[in-house]
Amino acid sequence: MLLQALIGFASQVVSASASIVPRQSSARAFCSSSDGRYKLSEFDAPVAGIGDPGGMSTWNLTIDDTPSGHKQQITGFGAAVTDATVTVFNQLSTDKKEQLLRELMTADGVNFSLMRHTIASSDLSGDPAYTYDDNGGNADPSLSWFNLGDRGTAMAAMLKAMKDLNPDMTVVGSPWAPPAWMQLDRKLTGTTEQNNLDHQYADQYAQYFVKYIQAYRDAGVPIDAITIQNEPLNSNAGFPTMYVYADEAGQLIRDKVGPALRAAGLDTTVWAYDHNTDVPSYPQTVLNTAPDYVDAVAWHCYANPLDWSVLTDFHASNPTVAQYMTECWTSSTSTPWNQASSFTMGPLQNWASGSIAWTLGTDTADGPRLSGSGPCPTCRGLVTVDGAGGGYEMQVDYYVLGQFSRFMARGGTVLAGTGSYTYGDGTGLESVASENPDGTRTVVVENKFGNDVYVRLGTKSGETWAGRVYANSVVTWVLPAVG
């Protein structure tokens, strides 16, 4: 499809004056493509000036790389470490596992620096479902039976290994449910009736977080943030869940969880919500109720229709509150090649400071997972492990997410820009840019057309850059610092 006629949909036309004086390009480019030809591979570097499209379709973008264009700071990118992840990674030989972790957590690979982990069991856990204080289903008001158990200890060890490789890694923990004895139904799974917190145990609920954070700290894993409940509006009998109302969540954080963390001398913060973009009133209620303890909002991608501009609206009302995309699935059968780009690009364009995939690792059968019909049967990890063969394979989502995480540095700043557009049929071109702490600029371009596109980028600092973006791919340009 030729795009010359579509320039009207793109951004301001690159200024002629910016292209009159070309200069030596020290830029680089990298590409990951849907056809597997490119996997974070070195690609055609953009040239200074308007370049020569050679008959290719063209598209114009602009970025504001002056202080006026500075938006949110980047914390990082990563994925969820589930019990499934820990189980399959630990099936690898020591050398293979160390190699894999280096590819995930260092600049030699995709340099993940924002990891979410499951506090005890999720749907991506082997049977049986568990928490850190099950006590045979009996009440334990003193929490004397609290323990990480084998799986919690293995989880902490895996996160410690990741933290050793990337000391700047941010860890956020999310529970799928507290111990069954804290819930009105007294059951971890099997029913949605009275699937709510029993408030006679609200103090124990808060102390459960304290003990968990202390246990992981003692294992060498500082927990930077928690959400008090994964998907609080999702009540499912097939795996651990718990329904928590918005005002209830705010009151629990304000009156119980927040004070308990502070009394224990913990600097772990609380991120509100951890659910879909279609109920923004929920995190707003939590923030209004517990402003002293909540410094960020966590969003998931499962609203239908999905509209990331909700985050921009939320930022307008809460400009000092950080936002994150903390869960979006990838699948071998049900998500497109650009899934990881979509759930990272959209949030970054709308004030998110990072994005987290669901999930980091699974086996070749998209597990292990709890038995029954509740757990996701086709959630594929960014990495799949062949336990029998002793090897692993990076999926397209790994490479596509790496187009952001490897080049958009932690502590960088997202830049304002124009020119992104997606048509009703899903084709189009989307882009987001950042300025890294060393002054270099990163421009990530997602081409959703089945043909190569020649992109011309104008910068407010007065430069023009141009280059080819491969069909159905994500291409990242790393541009030198201004001047």
Automatic annotation (TrEMBL):
Top-rank taxon of the source lineage equals Eukaryota
Annotated signal sequence is 1-18
What reaction gets catalysed by this protein? Random hydrolysis of (1->6)-linkages in (1->6)-beta-D-glucans
E.C. no: 3.2.1.75
Task: Give the location in the cell.
Answer: Secreted
Q: Which GO terms describe its molecular function?
A: glucan endo-1,6-beta-glucosidase activity; glucosylceramidase activity
Give the protein family: Belongs to the glycosyl hydrolase 30 family.
Query: What is the name attached to this protein's record?
Result: glucan endo-1,6-beta-glucosidase
Per the UniProt record, the source organism is Phialemonium atrogriseum
